[in-house]
Amino acid sequence: MNVLFVCTGNTCRSAMAEELLRRMAEQLEIEDLEVLSAGTDADEGMPASYGACAVIAERGGDLFNHSARQLTRAMIEDADLVLTMGRSHKARVLALCPEAEEKTHTLLGYAAGRDQDIEDPFGGDADVYLKTLDQIELALVVLLIRLYPAHAEEIRRVYSPND
């Protein structure tokens, strides 16, 4: 399974989702998952925002070597699933590659059935970044259960909100 996350600059939301999902898959020993992220208006090579790096580090991740990527048609075509952080990103994906409609969703739409945007934390304080990361993480838990139902019990055990 090849999952592509898309946001605007690829320095906050999609980068955090990529790193977090990759780490979750490693922890759960899911080996057939490839994860990539890109931005609809990315400045190629830009590092992840300091806020994104800080909150991901608190969860054991590392974005300090992240380099922003501009979304391309080839990325969309190579993905099995394209998950956007907002409805405007979804529209941009479909403008680039209209035939990707069936595999393109907002992250919250795919995971929770709510076609809503995940707020962009760029420029916000640590609490804003944490709120965004928490929202992404919860959606990723549901995503993993949906993609890997055989691992559902383990996913629930590892990522139980009661911990």
Overall 3D geometry? globular
Counting DSSP E segments of at least 2 residues, the number of strands comes to: 4
Query: What is the spatial order of strands in the main beta sheet?
Result: 2-1-3-4
The DSSP helix count reads: 7
Distance between the termini: 29 Å
Give start-end ranges of low-pLDDT stretches.
none
Largest sheet: 4 strands, parallel
Report the radius of gyration as a whole number of Å: 15 Å
List the helices and strands in order: EHEHHEHEHHH
Give the mean pLDDT. Answer: 95
Q: What structural class results from the helix and strand content?
A: alpha/beta
* Helix residue percentage: 40-55%
Strand content: 5-15%
Write out key terms for the chains shown:
single chain, 163 residues, alpha/beta, 4-stranded parallel β-sheet, 7 helices
Q: Could you characterize what this model shows?
A:
With 163 residues, this protein is α/β, with parallel strands linked by helices. It has helices spanning 13-27, 50-58, 73-78, 87-96, 107-112, 126-147, 152-158; strands at residues 2-7, 34-39, 81-84, 104-106. It has a four-stranded parallel beta sheet, sandwiched between helices. It is globular and about 40 Å long.
Topology of this structure?
Elements: E1 2-7, H1 13-27, E2 34-39, H2 50-58, H3 73-78, E3 81-84, H4 87-96, E4 104-106, H5 107-112, H6 126-147, H7 152-158
Parallel strand pairs: 1-2, 1-3, 3-4
Helix pairs in contact: 1-6, 2-6
